[in-house]
Amino acid sequence: MDDSAHEVLLRIVRDLPDPRQAWKVSHKRHDILVIVVCATIAGLEHFTEFEDDAEANAEWFQTFLDLPNGIPSHDTFGHVLAALDPNEFERRIQLWFHALAGSTAGKHIAIDGKTLRRSFDRASKKAAVHMINAYVHENHAVFAQLKTDEKSNEITAVPKLLEMLKLKEATVTLDAMGCQKDIAGKIVEKKGHYVMAVKGNQGSLQEDIRTYLDDAIEHGFAGEHDLYECSEKGHGRIEVRRCWTCGNVQWLAKRHDWPKLSSLAAVECVRTVNGQTSTERRYFISSHSGRCAQKIATLVRNHWRVENELHWTLDVCFNEDSCRVRAANAAENLARMRRVTLMLLKSEKTCKLGIKTKRRKAGYQRDYLLKVLGFTPNP
Q1: How far apart are CA 186 and CA 156, in angstroms?
Q2: pTM given for the model
Q3: Strand, coil or helix: what is 142?
């Protein structure tokens, strides 16, 4: 294994505190985690598969790992991932991501949650693990990830997630669950901007904005405003998207007092399929000015890349929702392993194939696995 690939891999696990009792340790922690990363890249999903793959490629692993007592058992993989401190692991991953992909400052950060559906344990009444992700589509990377116990706790978890990020000149987009004054205040405090979807969970806020913007769209805006429109045709469907933004927010600020609120936006999608037309209009608040309709429209649309490029890929290409690992911290730590692996696979550009096919190729072609591990990120 060449030095660059070796160093990239060890960045993730170097100096992690080992939770095991020293006198019981037969296998080095970094050996175990490196094998897990390689197995995950190669399309393997269960601890027994990790052990079988490592046994089959023992000579290859021995060229760059210590392995003082041979290949660890599948139980050892499970015990180490269950005991590993997820917060310490997350800190190391963040340092690695920032070294490879740069800072989140000035980027578009889409924040959304995903439940690991099969991680629940009915016998012990343990709820499924729910992870909050801060996804930057420009880098195809999750720059921060945090576990919550229940989906409703996203409200309290998001401010903690924001503390992990550099937000200067960045724009954070959130769905209606994250539309909270405390969250907006945290983003502004860190010199960032926000675009938040508004729905019924904010009481009269949605009704006030909808009434005002619908009337302004029909009869004309007063003061600072902007309009952006685009259309798409394909797959038997025609879509026309419009975004109106308005800087007249003084009246709303008096009623609701949002931090640095600068504009309101309505985003409308008119979709025609097989001669049937449907219209959907959604509403947003933002700290951006009222004359940036194209920017708001782009941010709103790109927010859903977190679903298509991250959540969907993890489910379809990594079978994340089918993973039944649930002991202690194992499900959370494996989710982080998949996140690291996905970034590595997306950043490898020489193979013009999908993620699932790249994983298979890495399984039967070790030279390609090394290439995935030792990639040089785009500037």
Answers
A1: 12
A2: 0.88
A3: strand
